[in-house]
Amino acid sequence: MKKVLIITYYWPPSGGSGVQRWLKFAKYLRGFSWESIIYTPHQGEFPVIDKSLEKDVPQNLEIIKTPIREPYNLYKKITGNKDAQTVSFLKEGKSGIIQKMFQWVRGNFFIPDPRIFWVKPSIKFLAGYLKENPVNIVVTTGPPHSLHLIGLGLKRKLNVTWVADFRDPWTNIDYYKDLYLTKWADKRHRELEKDVLSTADTVVTVGETLANELQNLGAKRTVVITNGYDSDDYKSVSSVSNVFSFVHVGLLSKTRSHPALWRAFANFLQKIPEAKSELKIKLVGKTDYSAIQEIKRAGIEAFVEKINYVDHEEVVRIQQDAWIFLLPINRTPNSKGIISGKIFEYMAAGKPILAIGDTDGDVAQIISDSNSGVIFDFDDVSGISGYMEKMYLEFKRNFRQVSTSNIEKYSRRELTQKLARELNHLSG
Q: What is the C-alpha to C-alpha distance for residues 140 and 200, in angstroms, rounded to an integer?
């Protein structure tokens, strides 16, 4: 059996979307003659903890952990923010002068990110490990993109075959402009990004638009392997809810909170007031301050239920009670290439998706190909509210027609098979 070393910051008990991609790959790779070895930090600063994901860790999987030094303890002491679920140099919501100062420090001193102090010790440790325990492929996954620098160091030191997996962009990520970068720091970020892209044997990423961007930035070879859903998580039969419920799972950030969506709800209720007794909008996960204010301005706060982070098993249960899934895409310059991982789980749950974003972006193409829902432009209040009216009539008739097609290619098993083919190609 061939071996792949996966260098990842996020691993159970870490929760959140960042952990699932390579956890699920590791879960299924053995079925395609690849044995995974995980390299991850000991006691990293994880935004959330989700022990329910530990069930997906394969038995007898080799997991290597080494200590990591991170600057978050100092940040927490200065800001007084001791909530592990919200610790971030890029905290959403109101930004005071201390917050802005930390964003400037994060962008200009911790390049590419605060995990940079783990790079040199990891290269030294893994260089020794790989000499004694050779593998066929080394994979790094980011963000945090500092992990790609570990791959870069191992490539230069040992000439390993290296795959750099970009779950998100680097210099084109949403918050890059909020780092208050000096010209020198911006140049340094871009130099490191180009070094990684041009040196990796293959760059894997989650969508076509991002793949093209990375190719233009210097990647010599790109392969698209999207995120997906795990069939094991969706074996129960979908329930039929007696509540006209809209569910959003995950971070509802400032750039994902679109005024048109909340105004559409208000317009819908104004046109069909009897729906007030049956409407429920569930926001599962962290909701930004700006989103709460937009909801209040639209006058629909009475219909909103905010649910703090819950583990993945509970997320799946909540999804079963949804009538419609909300999928707002970040309204940012790179919006066409943003593919939220939740779209694939929404498909697997078998409920229609109401997306708001670019109608010619990657998400629009996926929704069209899979017949899994609709997408409206960021400002299309009338289109969104009209869809709500249509779906409410279906709700009253207790009839919901969802006939998705061709979604099997997004199952974690199928995606892992695609990954295995790529690893086989690289390893010869």
A: 10
What are the tens digits of pLDDT across the range 172-198? 988 888 888 999 999 999 999 999 999
At 197, list the tokens. 């892209």
Per-residue model confidence as pLDDT tens digits over 12-54 = 999 888 899 999 999 999 999 999 999 999 988 887 889 999 9
User: Is residue 97 a part of any domain in this protein?
Assistant: no
How many independent structural domains does the chain possess? Answer: 2
Residues near 56 by Cβ (< 8 Å), separated by ≥ 6? 12, 23, 24, 27, 230
Which segment, 233-242, 264-273, 284-293, 332-341, is predicted with the most confidence on average?
264-273
Higher-pLDDT residue of 242, 394: 394
| Alpha-carbon distances, residue 3 vs 26, 33, 109, 137 (angstroms) | 11, 9, 36, 7
**305: number of Cβ within 10 Å:** 11
How many whole angstroms separate alpha carbon 348 and alpha carbon 364?
17
Q: What is the pLDDT of residue 75?
A: 53
Length of the chain measured in residues: 428
Span 96-107, pLDDT tens digits: 677 777 778 888
* Same-domain status, 143 and 168: yes
Are 219 and 341 found together in one domain?
A: no
Let me know whether 198 and 246 are in one domain: no
Containing structural domain, residue 312: 231-407
The whole-angstrom separation of Cα 401 and Cα 120 is: 54
For the chain, the straight-line distance linking the first and the last C-alpha, in angstroms and rounded, comes to 13
Whether 93 maps to a domain, the answer reads no
Who's near 52: CB < 8 A, 6+ residues apart?
A: 311, 312, 313, 314
**Do 25 and 143 fall into the same domain?**
yes
